[in-house]
Write a structure and sequence with these properties.
Keywords: Signal. The structure is a single chain. The protein is an alpha+beta fold. It is 26% helix and 29% strand. It has one domain. The longest helix is centred in the N-terminal third of the chain and has 13 residues. The protein starts with a helix and ends with a strand.
Length: 97
């Protein structure tokens, strides 16, 4: 249940992360250097969750909960994949590799 709530929260938060000033030189649809990143989050109770984010190259990211296979597609709304991952790390205090 915590993983489902976390995914819903993460998806909702990313709807607000896109700004025109976020341009870091990468073009939408351009393949990133690292197509997938796995972010690990540790909850207050010590339980860890991992979500793999993969750049689809079409302005969207596929988020897959590791272990369950639950999958959702998140629009980047003009933000690059690297900015998306950096934002994910900041918002959730997670470690992405």
């Amino acid at each position: 249940m915590k993983k489902i709530i976390f995914m819903a929260l993460a998806t909702g938060l990313f709807a607000f992360t896109s700004c025109s000033s976020d341009d870091d030189g990468e073009e939408v649809g351009e393949p990133s250097a690292s197509a997938c990143q796995t972010c690990t989050l540790t909850a207050e109770d010590g339980e860890t969750s991992a979500i793999e984010y993969c750049d689809n190259g079409d302005g969207t990211v596929t988020a897959t909960v590791v272990g369950t296979g639950s999958e959702t597609t998140i629009p980047l709304d003009g933000t690059s994949f690297s900015v998306f991952i950096s934002t994910m790390e900041q918002i959730t205090s997670s470690n992405c590799q």
